[in-house]
Amino acid sequence: MLRNIIKSSLAVLIGIIITSVVLASEIEGTVSRRGSQEQIAGVAVRLLETNLTTFTDRDGQFKIENVTAGNYQLLFSRFRYRTQIINVTVEENQVETVETRLERIEFIFDEVITTGNRLTESVSRQSLTALEIKRIPGTGGDALRAIQALPGIKAGVDFGGQLYVRGGSPEDNTIYFDRYPLANAYHFGGLVSTVSSEILQRIDIYAGGFGAEYGQDSQAVIDIYSRPGNRKHFSSRLNLNILYSEGLIEGPLGRSGSWYFAGRRSYFDLFPLEKVIDVITAFPRFWDYQTRFNYDINEKFQIDFTAFAADDFAELVFTEEQQDEEELRGALYIKNSANVQGFHLRALLSPRLTYDFNLSHNKQLVNFKIGQGFFLRIQPNVYDVRHDVVYELSPNVRLESGLINSIGDVVVQLFFPNPPEEGDTNYDFLQAEKNKVDTVQEFYEVEGYLQTRFTMGEILSMTVGTRVDYSADLTAQATPQPRLSLNFTPAQLPQLRLAYGRYLQTPQPPQFFEPGGNPELEESLADHYILELEREFENGTVLKLAGYRKQLKKQIEPDPEKDPAKNRKYLNIGEGYAQGAEFLLQHRQGDKFFGWLSYARSVSKRRDAPDQAYRFYSYDQTHIATVTASYKFTKTFEIGGRWQYATGNPYTPLTCEENIDNPCYQSTLDPRNRQARKIPLYGAINSFRVTPFHRLDVRISKTFVFDTWQMGTYLELINAYNRKNVLQFNYDENYARDEDGEVKKEIIGQLPLVPYVGIILEF
After folding, report:
1. Residues with Cβ < 8 Å from 725, sequence gap 6 or more?
2. How do residues 645-686 score in pLDDT, each as one tens digit?
3. Distance of CA 46 to the CA centre of its chain
4. Best label site of 11, 80, 204, 598, fewest CB within 10 Å?
């Protein structure tokens, strides 16, 4: 009997224990990535009021057991995701289910903040994903050429990649590659970009009004992000086209890292063309590479190493028969190169505190020679150290600060003419005054910024900040640059964005350093005023309207007095402005179709001194209209097209073009050979325009899929209807007139119809 009593008691006790375990309070749930259905593994889930911590499994699920009833804060943290804290109430003997989504973040430069379930986009920001870049016709998949399809942006020439943004020059743009300034972004001045499209994640373009984290000689920012390497398996990709070959290999680095290596090389120099074209001793060639290693030390620390290099080379020989100018006989020699190495550490120091450390080395070479007497060699060598800190005071308030130190030197050796003034069509390379410099200039620069982003409910968000750049060896000025942006998002109505910012442009070395420059120059100033309206529809279509004005002050212009005794060839006396409006109707990347329709109306004017009249700037583009579309008929077959129209570039006419009764030239005696010489007489600077530019590009691509690899082929027709767009004019040497009384001139055209063929192999 005693045995039965004991057995019964044990059964009851076991039942009580089992029941208590089953009925104990628990928290379980799933963590997914915001904007997708992807579950996130390895997310740390911590109950802040206790020592209870767990991690999500491969399906993004977690469970915390034996939780006492009460109110808690549940913290979710994972490297490369924004930390999130949510409130949870646990009832006695209940299972509380939680589902949350984490926002994927990249680097500190990302201009998005979380405001509940909304993202606050930056003013004047446009983004292109890697897939969109590869699908835009007429670019050959080139990273920076694709940007030309966006509103208010155009290339300087038909076959060049350098960008003119909202009436500015290429020198007004700053280009970043994975947080590092990219000074040499183009091969041969714009033929193709130096960044491989195979490793791109996306490109962000800020046409103006950007935050305080950007600065240092920029009125527009192109921010290029490379993607991490493949963490799951080894893969490779090869792109062969008529201009160059490009390859990519990538793979995992242990269990928590990845790597990639991408390289490219042209191959025209591998053919014996110099035997056909006897003036060529080394046919132009270029190469570049990018590599990146990244590794997650743990859930709080991640490091990566980036290396980048690019090189251009060409050489031609001019004999006495080929070149009648004695100074130019000899060789044309071009050698440009760039090398960048960078180290990046990201640390999640606490749930609310993020720290980014960047160390980089940038070494460049520009080596240019003409004939026997003209040479230019510039070799900067720069070390940069950058610190960025983000602290979230609350879910609605975020502080951002940064400090950048740059130290290095630049070798300058040159015997070269002064460059022509804007619109100076009488410029004579051989007759212009020569500068001779042989020096090594050391420099030290400090940049710092501080800004606050905060939201007020679901409707209003604001960013307030300032930036200071100080160059000890140039202007030695520390001018504050205030930045302000406001985002108003009423429910079911378009977003309204306002922005103001001040931006600086430091003098170029030839303008500043003696003997040719003026060491007393100050920075040029630009004030940006921007208004935007944006409406996003449920089908992924976005409608955006924007208006802007850039007010330019203290622009660097040649001294009108040109007094040699004062030794000041440049002064801060120029002024200008650029203003306009933009329209964009865009359908984002989809399974079958993507594209956009854009139009920009703008005016860009300058004057060389306050007492002079405004004139059109050389980069003014009154009208730019672009239609871009691409459609996948099947998963492996796609056709796309891009058509662009732009107002003709300004140019300075002959006086006889302005008035047929005026002379076209004046006669003078050439002091070098005592021969009569005709010098053209030009009218008002940039008062005429060449004929409008328009071009259609078509892209057809087909992919063939096999068991373990695939092959893609594409054909691009650049300038499909063979439009003869004007690059420049060559006037008749005697300025003779045609039957209509107009001066005869030869039109130097831009690209004709060009077929561009490529093959992509992927393993």
Report:
1. 158, 691, 693, 694, 695, 719, 749, 750, 751
2. 999 888 888 888 888 888 888 887 766 666 777 888 888 888
3. 39
4. 11
pLDDT, tens digit, 9 for 90 and up, residues 312-358: 988 777 665 555 555 566 677 888 999 999 999 999 888 889 999 99
Sign of torsion over alpha carbons 79, 82, 87, 90: negative
Give the residue among 108, 54, 55 at the shortest CA–CA distance from 80: 108
- Tens-digit pLDDT profile for residues 250-293: 999 988 899 999 999 988 777 665 555 555 566 788 999 999 99
Please choose, from the candidates 64, 61, 87, 63, the residue with its C-alpha nearest in 3D space to the C-alpha of residue 75: 87
Tokens read off for 34: 């915001």
Cβ pair 503, 529 in contact under 8 A: no
Residue 737 phi, psi (nearest 5): -110, 155
Which ranges in the chain are annotated with CATH 2.60.40.1120? 11-104
User: pTM of the full predicted structure?
Assistant: 0.78
- Could you tell me which CATH number the domain at 125-132+137-418+429-652+687-762 has? 2.40.170.20
| Residue 155 φ then ψ, to 5° | -80, 155
Pairing of strands 173-177, 220-226: parallel
In which order are the strands placed within the sheet that holds 173-177? 125-129, 200-206, 220-226, 173-177, 180-181
Question: Rounded to an integer, what distance in angstroms lies between the CA atom of residue 50 and that of residue 71?
Answer: 11
* Range scoring the smallest mean pLDDT among 321-330, 371-380, 630-639: 321-330
- Residues 719 and 696: their CA atoms lie apart, in Å, by 5
Residue pointed to by tokens 């004999």: 319
φ/ψ bin of 66: left (φ > 0), alpha (ψ from -120 to 50), beta (otherwise): left
Helix count (H) and strand count (E) of the chain? 4, 47
Q: What are phi and psi of 197, to 5 degrees?
A: -75, -15
Domain with CATH 2.40.170.20 in the chain: 125-132+137-418+429-652+687-762
Strands (E) located in 474-537: 478-488, 495-505, 524-536
CA-to-CA dists, residue 105 to 63, 80, 608, angstroms = 25, 5, 45
